[in-house]
Write a structure and sequence with these properties.
By secondary structure, this protein is mainly beta. The chain contains 3 helices and 12 strands. Helix content is about 10%, strand content about 40%. Strand 10 and strand 11 form a beta hairpin. The longest helix is centred in the first third of the chain and has 9 residues, at about 60-70.
Amino acid sequence: MGAILGKKVGMTRLYNDKREALPCTVIQAGPCFVAQVKSAEKDGYDAYQLGFGERDEKKVTKPLAGHYKKAGKAPGYMLSEVSKNLIAGELEAGATVAADVFSEGEMVDVLGVTKGKGFAGVVKRHNFGGGFRTHGQSDRLRAPGSVGGASDPSKVFKGTKMAGRMGGTNKTVKNLEIVKVMPESNLIVVKGAVPGPKNSYVKIVSTTK
């Protein structure tokens, strides 16, 4: 079991014993620090609040800077909570969590924010088929079609799939295999793709399935 915060470095490929190419993602996993220890007695649940990265104190609010100061650390770029059950042993505020919490062959879930695609139509956003390509239609090829009857129901139902902003949402990719762990470089290589563009922040936790 393990949990850590990191940054997506990019994608590459590795080869297995059968000389098959495996698409892999390289993640800079930590080192993270424990910004706060939450307990059931005080907060209602048990968790570690992990911080990752380092930035100027002048670029964060004073309450947040004071929160980091209690742990004796500089403000980080990412702050997220993980269950105490995911990390072995008892940690105190200011303790370090490194990439060696994971081992090769372990299965993990990776949480991140997907790439923002901007405003997109229904064909790209919802895989609509578009209109007919015949009978002289020139402007209905990628249109959504009818979204609600004029007389009945005389409205567009809430939740109707339409054009809009695409991407930029929280997403979890489950059951990714850790192919390689390089603790000296704070790097973890997982098989497959993870959410987000290069240099985006992710959270890696041991899978529950």
